[in-house]
Each structure stands twice: as C-alpha cells, then as structure tokens.
Amino acid sequence: MPPTDQQTPAPPVLELSKVVKSFGAVVALRSGSLRLEQGSIHALVGENGAGKSTLVKIVAGLYRRDAGDLRLRGEEVDFTSTAQAKAAGVAVIYQEPTLFPDLSVTENVFMGRQPAGRFGRIDRKRMRQEVEGLFQRLGVRIDPDRLAEGLSIADQQIIEIAKAVSLDARVLIMDEPTAALSGVEVERLFAVARSLRDEGRGIVFISHRFDEVFSLCDTITVMRDGAFVSTDPTDEVTEDEIVRRMVGRDVTELFPKQETEIGGPLLEVDGLTSPGVFADVSFTVRAGEIVALAGLVGAGRSEIARAVFGVDPYTAGTVKVGGRSIPKHRPVAAMAAGLALVPEDRRKQGLVLEESVSRNATLAIRSKLAKAGFIRNAAENQAARVWSSRLQLKTNALDTLAGTLSGGNQQKVVLGKWLATDPRVLIIDEPTRGIDVGTKAEVHRLLSELAGRGMGILMISSELPEVLGMADRVLVVREGRITAELDRAAADAENVMFAATHAAEEAAR
C-alpha cells in the first residue's frame, strides 16, 4: 500500500450521541448529543430543565445512561462512579460549590488525593505550595490555610476551579462557573480556559450569559426539552437565533420594566454598621419602587441585605418597615413586619434539599396552612401549585425532591416560597443567577408586576444590564459603604462602575 501524508484526524475528546435518561416516569433526557473536539471550548446552552445538568452528570459518572453512546477519545465508556470519570480525565465544576466547610482551602483542593511525603505522611508543605501556584495562575488571592466555612460564593467557585485545573483533566466541564464572579475574575478565568484549550484540552462551558458564550466559545450546542437542537460555530450564529432555538419562541423584551407610581417609604435603613463588613449604610425603599444594590463581588451587598432581614448581626443603626422599628438579629420579627429575603445561595440558605417542592414552597406559610395543628397534603399542594404555575416551574410532580431540580428551578421554588408570604418588601439577592434567558424575562416581568402592585423591592445583582434595566434607583456599594445613589435616568454602565471601583469622595466629584 503506497505511503500517504494524510493523517487520521484525532477522535473527539468527548462524544455523546442520542443519550437517554429517565427517573421513573420523568424523562430528563430524550436525546442528548454533544461532540467536543480537542483544543476547543464548546458552549452547551438551553433553558433550565433542557437536560444540560443530566447530560453533565452522566459524563461525570453520577448517573448511568439508559440508552445512547458515550465515548471518550474514541473509546466507549460507561462510568459507574465519579471516581471512574475522574480517573479517565473528566473534571466537572458544578454550578453550586461542594466544599467541606470544616477543612482548609488546601485540604479541599486535594481531598482524596493528598500527596505522601516521608514515612507515608501527607506532604502538607507540597500541597500548600501547589495551591498557592494554582491561585497565582488564576490571578486570585485566597489564604490556602483558612477554613472553607464562611467563604463567599465567588471564592468557593474559584477553589472548585483550582481543584479541577490541578487534576490536569483532558475534559473540563464548567457549569455556570462565572455566576458569582466579578468582571475581573471572569476575565482571569477566561484566560485560564483559553490556555487549557491551547494545550489541547476540551472544555464544555455552560452559561446563561450570552456575552460570555460568544466571547469565549468556539462552538455552541443548543438543547431544548431534553433533546439536542443544533450545533454551530460561534461565528456563524447570532444571539437571537440561539435564543429562539432554546425557548422555541422569540423573547422580545428581557427587561419589561413598567412605569409605576412610587408611594411612601416602606423600608428605611439608617446608619447600619457592622465593623469590618459595612459602615453607616442608609437608604429607603418606597412602595412600587425597585432599588438595586450594585457593586463588585465582595463589596458587602449581600451582607447588608442579610443584616436588614435579621440574619446577620449589626452593632449600630436601625431598620424600619412601615415606620416601625424591627429588632435586630430577629428574622421572625422581620417576616412578621412584611420583609422577605430570597438569598444568593439557594441550596444552603433557601431550600431543604431532601424535602419535596410543595414542602419547600410552603415553608414560610406553614402556620397559615395549619388547622388544629395539622397540615393536610392537599392544602400544602394547593398553595404550592399557585406559584409553581406562576413561575413556570419545570417539574412533573410537586412531590419531586428539591435537590433533584435544576439550579434555575430551585431558584423559582425559593422565590415562590417567599412570595407566598405576600410581603410588603421583597429583598432578592441575585434574582436570575443561573436562570435561563426565557425565565429571566419571566422573573423580571414578575418583579415589575409586584412593584406595580405597590410592593417595595430591594434587588442585589452582579449583572449590570439587569440593574440598569430594572431599577428605579441604583445604590452603588464599595467596600461596605454606599458610594453613589443614581436615579434611573442618571444610571449608566460607566458611572455605576466608576462608583463601584473608586472611593466615595472621587465618585462624588
């Protein structure tokens, strides 16, 4: 046979074809397909409930497929555990961090694979040095010796990323890794991702942020209702086309902000101070008004919100609802006064993962549902069904465990739980973090409707378009202080970011 200069092309580093997965009568994945080439960054997009997470968990060894093909570098594989997947070179960064809170940052990065030194003892010095090197590579500063407990979502995500990078995996799957990162941190992560791509690794990038998808990824695969829809090179498809394929319809207005009549003060915060966290924070939220707390990750926005609701303590200042003072560090009193808090970390702070959707959706109103000390399942389901329908929750049964839902659907359950209390003021931290574009529009429309009915809304968001699109007023927080207050007409990306990154004195000039 004559020699030839042609080389056989390398097989895809990861290939899934017509993969099916069901949980009882619920079909989570009808026909999942994905072809990841070596040296590429491949976006996987779709609405929450489209099957993305199920597909990822099959690749990670958490689930076994019912049908279809799964190949790694051309070889058929059938992982029965996450250990098998990791050994084969697959690393997954999930949407929610999974750190051990009582262990140090270094111990979390090396969990289950600690290097041995002399006499078989764990080489802690080497571990620490490698973690420091990883953080240097990612361009972040985190103390390798500190406990994971109390770390921000952003730091927890970065640690998960460092763990995956340290595994030297050939397939790296990033599930919403930038959801809680600032712009600078996102750019640093992207630089790492591109360097890994240039080394010949394949990266699957899952995100609802289209600016990230189009700036980072080479290829985009769309899924809808548990099935493959399309795969295209990024430069051959538009954002509008991707959205239409994801949702099966046009999403014409992402920020449907309606004009409302602003009433009197509902929430008044004066001089709120917690040393080392925030200082002299004062603001008002009026009836019918959406007020946004903007700023960089770590600026203290979430801490302020938790203190207002009574979850976190503060040493000075007052919180009033409807003109009446709320005792500090008393969430029950805050709820009784008409406050509701949808937290940033829905899994740890907003849900009981081992309980059903209906149980979670009614947790905050159980006293209202009880009759003679008992709550009937029918009453619980009826109350849950109202918000399940209103928020278009994608689950076939209210008895589904909350922990099995996609991230966006979990967010809907938490939101429904608090809206069921009929609050006067809704504090909502990252309302659309991890939520698909179709549901984002629905959540924004709901917030606008609630404001139109006279509810006051305090919204914390790291997404500047969301802040500018939905807020009547923007309060910019930097290092625990409010550095600027901008009305809707005056707020734009430039002056918000200036106030978020400069001292208050400079921002006021």
Give an overview of the whole structure.
The protein is of the alpha/beta class and 509 residues long. The protein folds into three domains: 14-99 and 151-247, P-loop containing nucleotide triphosphate hydrolases (Rossmann fold); 251-338 and 423-509, 3-Layer(aba) Sandwich (Rossmann fold); 350-422, no CATH class. 34% of the residues lie in helices and 24% in strands. It is built from 19 helices and 20 strands. The strands form four sheets. The chain has a six-stranded mixed sheet with strand order 6-7-8-3-9-10, sandwiched between helices. Strands 16-17-18-13-19-20 form a six-stranded mixed sheet, sandwiched between helices. It is globular. The N and C termini lie far apart (79 Å). The model is unreliable at 503-509 (pLDDT under 50).
The CATH class of the largest domain turns out to be Alpha Beta
Uncertain stretches of 5 or more adjacent residues = 503-509
Q: What strand order characterises the main sheet?
A: 6-7-8-3-9-10
Overall domain count: 3
The number of helices is 19
The largest sheet, given as strand count, sense and whether it forms a barrel, is: 6 strands, mixed
User: What CATH architecture label of the largest domain applies?
Assistant: 3-Layer(aba) Sandwich
Radius of gyration: 24 Å
Given helix and strand content, the structural type is alpha/beta
What is CATH's topology name of the largest domain? Rossmann fold
Going by CATH, the homologous superfamily of the largest domain would be P-loop containing nucleotide triphosphate hydrolases
**Mean pLDDT over all positions:** 87
Residue share in helix: 25-40%
- Using the alpha-carbon principal axes, give the shape: globular
Organism: Leifsonia williamsii
GO molecular function, one term: ATP binding
Domain ABC transporter: 14-250, 246-504
Keywords: ATP-binding, Cell membrane, Membrane, Nucleotide-binding, Repeat, Sugar transport, Translocase, Transport
